[in-house]
Design brief:
5 helices; two-stranded parallel sheet; elongated
């Protein structure tokens, strides 16, 4: 992990929280559409309808299918956050895609005929929202405690340095703790 200033970390993390909330809103917005597509083929018409619904709620989210490295379509949805720029720190969010994975081996789009199982899809949405909420809570905790975490890394490095000073130089090896935050 690269070292970033505390204020940059806070600004980027707050933007990530906005992104995660947008993912949750987008999934909640298309729940009725997913329910209406039970056992129907999922294709471009579905994606267009889902995108129209999402645009009315969260305009900076795009929905599509996840693809593998060859460009072949996988049987899962992918959300992309398009408003990546964080003006206060003049930077961009690094990873802005969320793939809705099937949970408990409950495939929600058939790999053979691309028919949707809306019950499994809504279950995957619920599980993804839980995971996203955990990420939000983790980021909020990190934002609130960033100064304390920085100090703990500094204290840890000081303890290591003091311990190494007591070891004879012929047996000493350098140990460095990479602090992800800086002032």
């Amino acid at each position: 992990m690269e070292t970033v200033k505390i204020d940059v970390f806070k600004a980027m993390s707050e933007r990530k929280i906005v992104m995660y909330h947008s993912y949750q809103k987008a999934l909640d917005a298309i729940r009725d559409l997913v329910a209406s597509y039970d056992n129907k083929v999922v294709n471009k018409r579905f994606i267009d309808k889902a995108q129209a619904v999402i645009d009315s709620v969260v305009p900076h989210i795009r929905i599509g299918f996840d693809t593998d490295f060859r460009g072949n379509r996988n049987n899962r949805f992918q959300l992309t956050f398009t408003d990546r720029y964080v003006q206060s720190v003049n930077g961009y969010l690094d990873y802005t895609q969320s793939i809705i994975y099937p949970f408990d081996n409950k495939e929600y789009i058939s790999q053979y005929d691309f028919r949707m199982n809306s019950e499994n899809c809504l279950y995957a949405f619920d599980k993804d929202n839980e995971t996203t909420q955990n990420l939000i809570n983790s980021l909020q905790d990190a934002i609130e405690n960033a100064e304390t975490i920085y100090q703990k890394y500094e204290q840890l490095q000081k303890v290591i340095d003091d311990t190494l000073d007591s070891i004879p130089s012929c047996l000493r090896q350098r140990v460095y703790v990479n602090n992800p935050l800086r002032k």
